[in-house]
Amino acid sequence: MFNSQRPRPEDLPTSSQLIRATALAAVAAGAILVAVVLPSEYAIDPTGIGGALGLTEMGEVKLQLAKEAAADAATGSASAAPAAQVASPTATAAKADAPQRSETMKLTLAPGQGAEIKATMAKGARLNFNWSVEGGRVNFDTHADAPGIAYHGYAKGKDTTGESGELVAAFDGKHGWFWRNRSSAPVTITLRTDGAYSDIRRVV
Amino acid sequence: MSFRSIAPPGGVLRAALLAASLLLLCFAIGAEAWAHNVAEGDKGYIQESSGILFWPFVYLGAKHMVTGYDHLLFLFGVIFFLYRMKDIGLYVTLFAIGHSTTMLFGVLTGISANAYIIDAIIGLSVVYKALDNLGAYQRWFGVQPNTKAATLIFGFFHGFGLATKILEFEIANEGLIPNLLAFNIGVEIGQLLALGTILILMGFWRRTPSFMRHAFAVNTILMTAGFVLVGYQLAGLAAA
């Protein structure tokens, strides 16, 4: 155009240089694909390089998350309608005069496993909680859902040995905790709850 | 020199349609699904991991660059008329200095700009470079803006875009700096891989007598893609 000189033909790479570069690029791409991309994305590691670099582990986490998301989507679409009918009477009952109750629940998570415990609470209801981990650390996500509300987050953390606090329900629905054990050994979580909720159970 | 002739409309239209479909494909791949509000894919992995993970972050940085169509379009514009290794090295280094600086600054200070605005500016950088390649600034204003300075300055904006994405990933504090450096190394490796591919393809293309004739059309398409990116991001800003 205007801001550059037309290149002289002798400055350009020759055809044989270009063909050699193409062949080299194809070989390099194949090596990168097998050694790096396949382990990182699909945990397929024929060379063992991905395992040595920690890439295969990334691939495993991604595959697991994708599988769980697919399972979630499948159950979510199947149970969406009945859940809405069941949930509303329970929520109104809880609102009328929320009984105070307290529970202690224990669960063990294998490496890579996730679990979720949720309590049914009415809007504004309060729940004191305390959970602790034996044998390691977990990632957690304290959140709620209700018909029409897929996710409402309260708190999140990584590599935690426990947490305590008060959970105030933001709306009528199910409120609770999701934990994931990302360590290489099983862990046990003990959850103590005390407050105004009508039903508490492990949902995942 | 004057290059008034452009490729026949049929060829331009075909190339424009190809560019548009490639862009749409990129947007479709960018969509994410959620479970327990835990993202899938790279984001999910980063949100669930902590500690120093050198090679995974090198990989993520390289992947971001190789699949980042906005960075690739800008790089394509920058090297369009560069063919000496010395020049390519200089411009790529300027771009790398620019985006590394703001990426590290953005993540370490936690200062993040609005992602839509930054990405719209990145789209504008593509438009700017395409117009520069077409000689528009000389034609319109009689001046040639410093191409090295422009590459560095747009590098700063691209780095802010990277920082904003990393902040969205909620990367753990534990091992943050080694992971960021690994990510940045990956970005450079990805840039070299992408650039190598672009250069080989352009090498074949430059040798054809029609290169200069097609150059006008291709930079026009590049500018179109830049405008699409700007519009896509501004629409996202309006809808958010």
Question: Can you characterise this structure?
Answer:
The complex is a heterodimer of chains A (204) and B (240). Chain A is an alpha+beta fold. Helices cover 37% and strands 38% of the residues of chain A. Chain A has helices at 15-42, 49-53, 55-96; strands at residues 100-109, 114-121, 126-134, 138-146, 149-160, 162-168, 173-180, 187-196, 199-202. Chain A has a 5-stranded antiparallel β-sheet with strand order 5-4-7-2-9. A 4-stranded antiparallel β-sheet of chain A has the order 1-8-3-6, with no helix packed on it. In chain A, β4 (138-146) and β5 (149-160) form a beta hairpin. The longest helix of chain A is centred in the middle third of the chain and has 42 residues, at 55-96. Mean pLDDT of chain A is 82; it is low at 78-96. With 240 residues, chain B is mainly alpha-helical. Chain B has one domain (50-239). In chain B, 77% of the residues lie in helices and 2% in strands. Chain B contains 10 helices and 2 strands; from the N terminus they run αββααααααααα. Chain B has a two-stranded antiparallel sheet. In chain B, β1 and β2 form a beta hairpin. Chain B is globular, with a radius of gyration of 19 Å.
Outline of this structure?
The complex is a heterodimer of chains A (204) and B (240). With 204 residues, chain A is an alpha+beta fold. Helices cover 37% and strands 38% of the residues of chain A.
Return the string of H and E elements of chain A.
Answer: HHHEEEEEEEEE
Helix percentage of chain B = over 70%
Count of helical stretches of chain B: 10
Separation of the first and last Cα atoms of chain A: 63 Å
Q: Greatest chain-chain interface?
A: A-B, 48 and 51 residues
Low-confidence stretches of chain B: 1-9, 25-35
Known CATH architecture of the largest domain in chain A: Sandwich
Alpha plus pi helix count of chain A: 3
CATH superfamily of the largest domain in chain A: Mitogen Ypm
Provide the spatial order of strands within the biggest beta sheet of chain B: 1-2
Uncertain regions of chain A: pLDDT < 50 for 5+ in a row?
Answer: 78-96
In whole angstroms, the N-to-C terminal distance of chain B is 47 Å
What shape does the CA trace of chain B take? globular
Q: Which whole number gives the mean pLDDT of chain A?
A: 82
- Computed structural class of chain A: alpha+beta
Strand content of chain B: under 5%
Total count of domains of chain B? 1
CATH topology tier name of the largest domain in chain A = Jelly Rolls
Protein name (chain B): HupE/UreJ family protein
Organism (chain B): Sphingopyxis lindanitolerans
InterPro entries (chain B): Put_HupE_UreJ
Pfam families (chain B): HupE_UreJ_2 (PF13795)
